Amino acid sequence: MMSSSPLSTVIRDVKGYASDLAESWLDLMKKKQYNEAVQLCIDFLENYGSAFKSRTLEIDEEGYNKLLILLVFFKGLHEYVQLCQITNDRNWYKDHTTVENVWIKLCDCRERLQFSSQYCQGEVIDRVFSDLDGLEEFFCNVFGEGSYLSPGIVADVSLCSICNQDCRACSHVAGRLYNGKICFYQPINPQLNHVALVKTPKDLRCRIWSWHIKDNEDESIRIDSACILTSFRVDDFLQDSETKFHENLY
Ligand SMILES: [Zn+2]
Question: Which of 24, 30, 39, 233 is the most exposed place for a label (fewest CB within 10 A)?
Answer without folding.
Answer: 30
